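Whether sequence alone determines local backbone shape is best considered at the level of individual chains. In the encoding step, the backbone of a single protein was reduced to a row of integers, each denoting a local shape. For completeness, the protein is quoted in full, as a sequence line and a line of structure tokens.
***
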Amino acid sequence: MGETTADMASASLMVDLIISLDGYASAEGWPGWWGLEGPEYLAWLSQEAEKNYTFLLGANTYRLMSSMSGEAEAADSGFSKDEGATLTGLAAVPKVVFSSTLQAPLAWPNSELVTGDAVEAVRDMKQTRTAPLTTLGSLSLCRSLLNAGLVDRFRLVVFPVITGRTGRERIYDGYPDVALEMVDSRIFDGRLQLLEYVPTLLDGVPGSR
């Protein structure tokens, strides 16, 4: 019926996304995290950053997150203490940036630039590296990696908001059909829901053969 997306590889790959209930990654005029991030969620983010992940991201996410990380270092940044710690902490973790427009060396510390094909580069990274890989934003990159069958885990944090009028960046547009086996779930701050799955690409409608 289908082909598992988990390769026989040394390094595992997780697509990691935040999402509104109606499937958007962000919304026009709304703050980051839709203004619903809480201390439990932010503490979990800080813990995740310490798990030896190598973060994979595209050029747009790199520009956004490196700018926010730099701003968070200022005393008058406007970020809360927990937000600032989460953002500044990203500077210390290894990051691989896929872009044909950025130029090396990248200013954000611990950032490696890859200018070639992202799918082939990640395929090679899974075979030659041991540290786990995870995405940071970068919806087009996530979609390409899932389509290529390279994703071992698919993790969402669902925010309890519907942004049908202001929502931007529909997450699932262009996705293949995928079966999902839930392997983890939890609630943060009494309102945010984490869902983690093992994805399996489908090459036909289940039961159609």
